[in-house]
Specification:
By secondary structure, the protein is α+β, with helices and mostly antiparallel strands. The protein is built from seven helices and six strands; from the N terminus they run ββαβββαααβααα. Helix 6 packs across helix 7. InterPro entries: tRNA_Adeno_NH3ase_assoc_put (IPR023869).
Length: 177
């Protein structure tokens, strides 16, 4: 399974991006260490891992501590060793998804921009902390909606999130290398 892993780190100078090699990582702590190594003094460090145009995992460290993880679909853990390493320990579905099952009319037809309910792919099982980007301008509802939007690839979700963060150009440059 192929993947792209982009670290986006913010310090007093703004956002910087770097590609991260996850080959050979043995556990989530080692992945977090590789993220820390990008910029040890970063205020916020994010790692976007996109796999086979199907799965997205976002990891976050604040000042190098308190690892938080969101995965677009728990099935990634069954599909690859890297998926198992990143989301295999995330046993609980994203908080608030139970609310999505209530009024189907709120999500019918792809949902609208002002909807309070995320549009969730019934086949997907998002796991982890969907709220990990809320203080950066991406609410849990918006992240879930982006991940579930028909036709949106993980790279598209990363691009949308990075556009809000103000680091889209830095990540796009990594893709061009």
């Amino acid at each position: 399974m192929s993947y792209f892993a982009a670290a986006v780190v913010r310090d007093e100078g703004g956002w910087n991006a770097a590609e991260v090699n996850l080959r050979g990582a043995t556990d989530i702590d080692e992945v977090a260490d590789r993220l820390r190594d990008v910029e040890p003094d970063a205020d916020v460090s994010l790692l976007f891992v996109e796999a086979d145009d199907a799965y997205l995992v976002v990891l976050r460290l604040d000042e190098g501590e308190d690892l938080r993880v969101f995965g677009s679909d728990s099935a990634y853990a069954e599909e690859s060793r890297l998926g198992a390493l990143l989301v295999g320990d995330l046993k609980t579905s994203v908080t608030g998804l139970d609310d999505v099952d209530e009024p189907p009319s709120a999500t019918a037809g792809g949902g609208d921009e002002d909807s309070e309910q995320p549009v969730v792919d019934p086949e997907a099982d998002p796991v982890g902390d969907a709220d990990l980007l809320a203080d950066l301008g991406i609410s849990a509802q918006r992240l879930l909606k982006l991940c579930a939007h028909e036709g949106m690839l993980p790279a598209d979700v990363t691009a949308e999130v990075c556009q809000v963060l103000g680091c889209a150009d830095e990540v796009e440059e990594l893709r061009e290398v």
